[in-house]
Amino acid sequence: MDPSGKLIYTKNQEVLSANLQTMQDDTTPEGTQIPISIKEMGSTEIFATALIHSPNGRFVTVVGDGEYIIYTALAWRNKSFGNGVSFAWANDSNTYAVLENRVKLRVYKNFKERTGVGMKGSGSWSIEGLHGGPLLCARGHGFVLFWDWETGDIVRRIDVQAKNVGVNSLVGMIVISRLRTGVLVGDWVFGCHRR
């Protein structure tokens, strides 16, 4: 879901949307299905394992089958594509990172690969997934690593077996969740404002 309440989801390779902002005055009791109007947007060539909105809501990235495709959110037109198993947007919606395989990370700005400045140490660790926000986050076996998007410098490394990393860009907070005896627990809450 994007910040304005537009929900985009897939059913197999069919792409559907609904606007949840129209539901603000709904008095549906908790636990019941919400009656929403569903609109068919189109289809995607890959079986989606993740849908990731850009922070400004203009683009949606579909990740799956070892590939990624960036679509425009309104007209559902293909903007960019390539090989990738994980994807992350920066806060500016013009910069993004693609994990092509467990050790190959590429950073793009304005839909062109950024040359020169790379993420320091990338390729040295096996990465399981990327997470975006004010910092680029890489989650690997036994660690979570944060890079500065502009300089590529490592900001922080935390040795933890993470299941997921959540970023709230509005308040600049990051939550690292991990499994503890079968229960998902939020740990390592800290600020991520750039200085």
Topology, element by element:
Elements: E1 6-11, E2 14-19, E3 39-43, E4 50-53, E5 59-64, E6 67-72, E7 78-83, E8 86-89, E9 95-101, E10 104-109, E11 112-113, E12 127-131, E13 135-140, E14 143-148, E15 154-158, E16 164-168, E17 173-180, E18 183-191
Antiparallel strand pairs: 1-2, 2-3, 4-5, 5-6, 6-7, 8-9, 9-10, 10-11, 12-13, 13-14, 14-15, 16-17, 17-18
Shape: globular
Order of helices and strands: EEEEEEEEEEEEEEEEEE
| Major sheet: arrangement of strands | 4-5-6-7
Radius of gyration: 18 Å
Flag low-confidence runs. none
**Helix count, DSSP H or I runs of 4 or more residues:** 0
Compute the separation of the termini in Å: 29 Å
Helix content: under 10%
On the 0 to 100 scale, the average pLDDT is 85
List how many beta strands DSSP finds. 18
Describe the largest sheet. 4 strands, antiparallel
Question: What is the structural class?
Answer: mainly beta
Q: What is the strand content?
A: over 45%
